Structure formats: structure tokens, C-alpha cells
Amino acid sequence: MQSPLVQRFLRYARIDSHSDPASPSVPSTLGQRTLASELADELRALGLSDVVLDANGYLTARLPATLGCSAPAIGWIAHLDTSPDFPSQPLHPQFITAWNGKEIALSDSGEKISLKAFPALRACRGHDLITTDGYTLLGADDKAGIAEIVTAIETLLAAPDIVHGDIWLAFTPDEEIGRGADHFPMERFPAKWAYTVDGGELGELEYENFNAASATIRIRGNNVHPGMAYGSMVNALTLASVFHAGMPRTETPEHSLGYEGFFHLHKMSGNTEAAELHYLVRDFIDEGFARRKVFLAERIAAFNNELDTARLTLEICDSYYNMRRKIEPHPHILDIARAAMQDAGVKPKVKPIRGGTDGSRLSFMGLPCPNLFTGGYNFHGKHECVSIQAMHKAVEVLIAIARRTAQHPDTEPHD
Ligand SMILES: [Zn+2]
User: Fold this and answer.
1) What's this model's pTM, rounded to 2 decimal places?
2) Active site residue 175
3) Which residues are CB-contacts of 241 (< 8 A; sequence separation ≥ 6)?
4) For residue 357, what pLDDT is reported?
């Protein structure tokens, strides 16, 4: 017999709600709206107030504070979409009871999950796992998060002795395509701070992410018939490859980890006449981030100096910033999360996110928003799986956060 948490997760996971980067509409796909409206019905049926599903596909709701509790309002956030990088349907989940740590074959797909390939799963030995059949992703990112939030709410509703303040929920579309915060309805989300429930392994607590920018270098060449090119052709592709060959070899995603930043050449295109290089610039440290941008500008200037004329131009757009800056001034947000994990018997694992989250953008919009684990692993592909025990722990942590927020001495609302 599956627990209500698992039943809920599977019900959400069976709805195809992948987002679509090519779609200009909001939300980018209808499936997300389908999931959001089913969730809206579920939240109303549970008895939540202020349930609103807006035209942009953002679903918000409130669990009112227990009588007499004036603790600050907090928020729990998860995203409705799954990654467009891999098919999400038809979902055929496999259930592994009390996993012994041995290789798991994903049906007849030839795909396997092993500790060698996925050492983080070591923590899940003995757990009950849900995997895919090797042909789709699972959708634990972030439907595990949604199921955990709804189950925590249901548990709080059934336990009126647990004192808590207002808890606001938001389920947002298009996180996987970087648009999750674009239309976030801050005006109807009066939480003082929030937690995204969108992390991976048991115990994850994340409040640092990259500072991120994208850099486009445009290179103007001079195309001449190759038979008459002597002394006059300038091959933009050659300039592009020489420029890239001079970039720091080891400051790339494949050579860096932990707190190390990088330049990532993710697209290169062109012909003799014109070429473009597209880099992602990433650094956790504000000064390092600024230095990387200066480095690019100085290299372009030096490169242009060596040419007959300035042929390279640089355009840099900042994408998002490290949320640490917005969260550290309010240490109780992390203190409460850490203490809540300990209450649930979970060892907090603080690690930097080598990417961005909706939480980082929301933090800069005035809603400090660290990220909590869901218990899911190997997101965005066929090896995605989730530990049922870790999912239950995530629910316990959310409930403990609600309780701890009402008890914490430093939780006077910050403005
Ligand atoms: Zn996610």
C-alpha cells in the first residue's frame, strides 16, 4: 500500500508538464496549467484559503496561522514543470523495496543505476526507491517537491496542536527554462521569506548559487574568393578559434567543481565573413565574477589591437546573482532550516548550487529563498529516481520548519 505522499507524487508525475523553451506563451505549455488546476482543486478540497491560479499559471494558496499565532508568514515553493531535455511520458515507474545497493536494471532499456555511476545514492541503501523504466525521466524534479509540500500542509491541517504562522504556497511554471520567476505574483505572496523545495539528495540545504552572465563575442571577418584571398581575406572563424584557444584551459565546467567558477563556450557559429562565440560566465564570488567580465573585455581589446581594425565586439548580460548576499543578513532563515532538519533526524548538507534557482531570483526580488532537498537524484534524465524515505523526511522537515518558525526568537518580520 502506497503512502498518500507517494500516491500524490505519482499522480502529479503522470501529468505531462514539461516546459518548452521554444514556446513564447506563459506558461510555455498547457500541461503545466493542467497540473496547476488539478492542484488548485486539491488545495481547495484540503481547505486552504486564498487559492488563486492566475492567467500566467502561478498557483498560490495560504494555510492560515493557528489561532493566536503571530509568527511571520513563510512560503514554500515548488515548480510545476519538468525538464524539456528528456521525455517525461509515458511514465512506467519501477519500485525497488529496501534497495540493497546492487545495480538496478531499468526494465528492458539496457540502462542501469549503479553506485559506481551515481555514488550519491550510497545514502539510499536500504531505502525504497522509485525509478523509471529507462525511457523517460521521473519528474521528481520537482513533483516530489510539490507532493511533499501538499502532504506537509495536509499533516498540519490534521494536527491543530502544532502551532504555526501563515504558510503561503506557490507552484510556479517554467523553472526549467529559466522563466520561473518572471511573473511571480509577489503582490499576493506576503511571506517574509520562503524555501524552494527543489533540491536533490537527503539533507541538501542550498543558499549559494553562481553569479551568472552570458557573453556574446561577435567577430567581423572579410570574405574574399579563396583564389584571390592573398593578403586580404580575414577569416572570422579562424579569429574565433584563436580567441577561444587563448581562454584559460582549466576554467571550464568540465575542469571545475565546488566553489570554482568558469567560462563555458556553449555555442560557436559563423562563416568566413562573420562569427559568434557564446560564453556562460559563472563565479560564486562577486569580485571573481566582476574580474571575469573585465578579463573578457581586456582580452577583446588586446586581440583587437593585434588586428588591422577592431573586429571583435563584446556584449555581456547578467543573468542572476548569488543569493547568499540576500540570505546571510537574515541568519534565522538558515538556522530554522538546519534545526528543522535535525528535528527530523536529517544531517544538513550545505552545498553551493552550481547553477541558479528560482530562489536566487526571488531572493533578489525581496523574498529570501534558500533551497531544500526533495530526496530525488539524477535529475533531468532516465536515471532519475527518488527515495521514498527521503521524501518522507522532506515532509517532516517542512513541518518542523513551520513549528520552529513559530518558536524562534529572531523571527520578527524584516522589511
Ligand atoms: Zn527543479
Assistant:
1) 0.89
2) yes
3) none
4) 80
